[in-house]
Amino acid sequence: MIGIEEVHIRLFYMIAAVGVLALLRPPLQYPEKPGSKWFAITICSIAVWLAGVGLYYFVHSRNGSLLLYSLVLFAITVCFIGWLLIAIEFATGQPPPRVVLVALGGLAGLYALLLATNYLWVHELVYQETTFVDEGGGLNPHRGPVFWLQMSSLYVLVFVSTVLFVAEWINATGPRRRQAGLLACTPLVGMGVNLLWFAAVIPFPFDPTPIGVAVAVAILGWALYRADFLAITTIATGRVVEEMPDAVVILDGDDRVVKWNRVASELFDVPDPNVGMPADSFFQSVPDAVRSRLSVSTNTDRQVSLERDGRTRHFSVSTFSIDGGSSGSLGRVVVVNEITDMKKREAQLRRQNEQFDAVTEIISHDLQSPLLQIRASAEALTADGSDDRADAIRRATDRIDDLVSDLSQLAHAGRQLETETAVDLGGVAERTWASVWSPHAELMIETDLTIRGDPARIQQLLENCFRNAVEHASTVSEDRPEADAIEETVASMGHSGGKGGGSQTRAETTADGDGQPLTVTVGSLPDGFYLEDTGSGFPSTSTAQLFEKGYTTSSTGSGIGLNIVEQIADAHGWSVRATNGETGGARLEFTGVEVA
Question: Which end of the chain is more exposed for a tag (fewer CB within 10 A), N or C?
Answer without folding.
Answer: N
